[in-house]
Design goal:
The protein has 1 helix and 5 strands. By secondary structure, it is mainly beta. It has one domain. The longest helix is centred in the middle third of the chain and has 10 residues.
């Protein structure tokens, strides 16, 4: 059985390979990105940033295979 689900990551508009981490810092390592279950949660986190206009949401599809 395979399972697919979506999460949302916050990245910078200027450099799409830079993601917001749980610490509030940014990282170029996608594995460090904080994932959000809903768009609303992710948007709320963006609004907490000093310059929210610099960030955007990225849709992440997670696939778990062979369960």
């Amino acid at each position: 059985m395979d399972i697919k689900y979506r999460r949302f990551a916050i990245g910078t508009k200027e450099r799409p390979t830079v993601f917001l981490m749980k610490s509030g810092e940014v990282s170029e390592d996608a594995e460090d990105a904080q994932l959000f279950e809903t768009i609303e949660e992710a948007n709320a986190e963006i609004q907490k940033c000093d310059e929210p206009e610099l960030f955007k949401l990225y849709d992440v599809e997670i696939s778990v295979q062979g369960i």
